[in-house]
Automatic annotation (TrEMBL):
It is found in: Cytoplasm. It is an enzyme of class 2 (transferase). Mg(2+) binds at D486, D492. It catalyses: RNA(n+1) + phosphate = RNA(n) + a ribonucleoside 5'-diphosphate. Belongs to the polyribonucleotide nucleotidyltransferase family. The lineage of its organism: Bacteria, Bacillati, Bacillota, Clostridia, Lachnospirales. Its cofactor is Mg(2+). It comes from Roseburia amylophila. Involved in mRNA degradation. Catalyzes the phosphorolysis of single-stranded polyribonucleotides processively in the 3'- to 5'-direction. Keywords: Cytoplasm, Magnesium, Metal-binding, Nucleotidyltransferase, RNA-binding, Transferase. Its EC number is 2.7.7.8. This is Polyribonucleotide nucleotidyltransferase.
Length: 697
């Protein structure tokens, strides 16, 4: 007999079935929220994985097409690799849960979420997030839960808790907040320039709701939770640390890590590691732990320097940004390019413009969004950190960083009506020493402006770090963290925005949550830093979008036609539109509302194609003047083609002012002539004349 538990959440009933399905998993929660159904499981290996120095956690969010009544596209007719949305959802689940597992736990753990049914009023992502937390909490896997997650949207200026898919897609806020029973542990947001105070209000509204969910989870744990299993600790023995401090003193270790050059610091640590390996060469127990032990020794040293001595490894002040530089147009012939450098972090961004026919098509569970017009891709090659390994395409981190920079810039993009282009920005990481995603945001903003994309406002991003002590009020927030401070610190708090508000947030932490004063200080610090970056650095390279797209970018003309005339432009089996394309070399896109986008690099050909479309869709009226080509000659007159599929007839009496016996006396096939519409003749046919065209002065 299975147990079923329910709670009211945001006006809908959340139901969790325990011991109904998936009984062989360590923990399983069969989740129902409205008609959305997700099966969440947590499983762990019996023994730790050998030879690793990290916690091997895998999170999966599986989207099944049957959940929305569809058969997958493609040849195989089954689901393929995870979608971008599935990857991003998995990351959002991973980030708040990972810190709550024991730091010395090395057993493989998989959190799997199978989306089986989707109710558009109840987004499956939030159901999976809660399902993962519940499945892990009630399992025998060591986990310091509970943790809960709430999403906040915005409609007509009002917050909406766990919004429907439509409100989430079309509102001004997409905020996800995870909390333990005391503190906020994860924040992910996309926003349409939400002011800082308003964002903090939304975060803590979600935090309060998370407490009711945590109470619900604890009820489940108390009634059906399994005892946590014992595990083999992979912690470095304290006796080893004591021995290491005899070999390399804390003062010597501080000298080793205190450098503003990453390569110098890495060389110093390499020498320390060699010294430890020599010292422990005969100790079979400690020798395999040297790498992890040196890492922990560095961590303790850096944290003590920052927290107690207020000294950063590169000598900067607590709120000081690394040296900055920016420039545009560094790559020839592309449509737009920019480079942004912050210390030893350097991003080159390249923007490509294309007609709207090249938007990305999306095949997912969200029926509201089927295309994406702005695509931001981020690449992180091994050479950027001085390593060597083959490129195997983007991983989850690269996809996540690209999505964050994309989210940061979407609110300032022009509408399709204002700028009828598909836009792709690619951030290439030339060098990395912390927070490349924020450098990517800055570089992308400048590259868009350099490409002539009329963005509404400038956007910049910066990251804050954190080092905490034994108590909640013993902490230091660091502006612009480098790699070392990210690795050894407790927080990576990324915020992007304009002068007027926040456009994106991504917060990762390694501790069990943040107090409200830390959150508020981080948001305040990031605002100060991003304003400085925009005003003092980015605007010096390019202050506003260029008025026109670049020389090598496609030019687009828009023509609005009567939707009833779309068939005339397309022609039978596409004959007319293909004829226009063949004659002018342009690309043409027409939407159902009659908006015609003409794309090409030759302005004269763009205008010619536009004129053809206007002629095709214009009803002939008396007094109109057209230029066309003679395409047919009969005894009684000549047929003139003004545009593909649009012809008129000039009677022999209307060709010349003097009387002529034969049309061929004046006209030959292929001649270009100018005609005036004379209205309808006695038979009701449209009549044209060459001889009555007014003389031009």
């Amino acid at each position: 007999m299975y147990q079923s538990y329910s709670m009211e959440l945001a006006g809908r009933t959340l139901t969790v079935d325990i011991n109904r399905v998936g009984k062989q998993a360590n923990g399983c929660a069969f989740m129902h929220y409205g008609d959305t159904t997700v099966l969440s499981t947590a499983t762990a290996s019996e023994k730790p994985r050998d030879g690793i120095d990290f916690f091997p956690l895998s999170v999966e969010f599986e989207e099944k097409s049957y959940a929305v009544g569809k058969i997958p596209g493609g040849f195989n007719k089954r689901e393929g690799k995870a979608s971008e949305n599935a990857i991003l959802t998995s990351r959002v689940i991973d980030r708040p849960m990972r810190p709550l597992f024991p730091k010395d736990y090395r057993n493989d753990v998989t959190l799997n979420n199978l989306v089986m049914s989707v109710d558009p009023e109840c987004r499956p992502e939030i159901v999976a997030m809660l399902g993962s937390a519940i499945a892990t909490c009630i399992s025998d896997i060591p986990f310091d839960g509970p943790c809960a997650m709430t999403q906040v949207g915005m409609k007509d200026g009002e917050f909406v808790i766990n919004p429907s898919q439509e409100v989430w897609d079309n509102g001004d806020l997409q905020l996800t907040v995870a909390s333990t029973r005391e503190k906020v542990i994860m924040i992910e947001a996309g926003a349409n320039e939400i002011p800082e105070d308003k964002m903090i209000e939304a975060i803590y509204m979600a935090h309060d709701i998370n407490q009711t969910i945590n109470d619900f989870i604890m009820k489940l744990v108390n009634e059906v939770g399994k005892p946590k299993h014992e595990y083999t600790s992979c912690a470095v023995p304290e006796e080893m640390f004591a021995a290491m401090r005899e070999i390399v003193t804390p003062d010597e270790m501080e000298v080793a890590v205190f450098s503003d050059d990453k390569q110098t610091r890495e060389e110093n640590i390499r020498k320390v590691t060699e010294k430890m390996e020599e010292a422990f060469a005969d100790n079979e127990e400690w020798l395999p732990l040297v790498g992890e032990a040196v890492y922990q020794y560095q961590k303790k040293t850096v944290r003590k320097m920052i927290l107690k001595d207020h000294k950063r490894p590169d000598g900067r002040a607590i709120n000081q940004i690394r040296p900055l530089a920016s420039e545009v147009d560094i790559i020839p012939r592309v449509h737009g390019s920019a480079m942004f450098t912050r210390g030893q972090t350097q991003i080159c961004d390249v923007v490509t413009l294309a007609p709207l026919s090249e938007v990305q098509k999306i095949d997912g569970l969200d029926e509201n969004i089927t295309t994406k017009r702005y695509m931001h891709h981020y690449n992180f090659p091994s050479y950027s950190v001085g390593e060597t390994k083959p490129s195997r395409g983007p991983g989850r981190r690269e996809i996540g960083h690209g999505a964050l920079a994309e989210k940061a810039l979407v609110p300032v993009l022009p509408s399709e009506e204002e700028f009828p282009y598909a836009i792709r920005a690619v951030s290439e990481t030339f060098e990395s020493n912390g927070s490349t995603s924020m450098a990517s945001t800055c570089a992308s903003c400048m590259a868009l402006m350099a490409a002539g994309v009329p963005i509404k406002k400038m956007v910049a991003g910066i990251s804050c770090g954190l080092v905490t002590g034994e108590t909640d009020d013993d902490y230091i927030v660091l502006t612009d963290i480098q790699g070392l401070e990210d690795f050894f610190g407790d927080m990576d708090f990324k915020v992007t925005g304009t002068h007027d508000g926040i456009t994106a947030i991504q917060m990762d932490i390694k501790i069990h949550g943040l107090t409200r004063p830390i959150v508020e200080e981080a948001i305040r610090r990031t605002r100060e830093a991003r304003l400085y970056i925009m005003d003092e650095v980015m605007s010096k390279a390019i202050a506003e979008p260029r008025k026109e797209v670049g020389q090598y970018a496609p030019k687009i003309l828009q023509v609005q036609i009567d939707p009833a005339k779309i068939g005339d432009v397309v022609g039978q089996k596409g004959k007319t539109i293909n004829e226009i394309i063949d004659r002018t070399g342009v690309k043409i896109d027409i939407n159902d509302e009659g908006a015609v986008s003409i794309c090409g690099t030759d302005k004269a050909m763009l205008e010619k194609a536009a004129d053809m479309i206007r002629i095709i869709t214009t009803d002939f009226e008396e007094g109109q003047i057209f230029t066309g080509k003679v395409v047919g000659i009969k005894e009684f007159g000549a047929f003139i083609e003004f545009a593909p599929g649009k012809e008129g007839m000039v009677h022999i009496s209307k060709i010349a002012k003097e009387r002529i016996e034969h049309v061929e006396d004046v006209l030959t096939l292929g001649d270009t002539v100018t005609c005036i519409c004379m209205g309808k003749d006695r038979m009701g046919r449209i009549s044209f004349s060459i001889k009555d065209v007014p003389a031009q002065n």
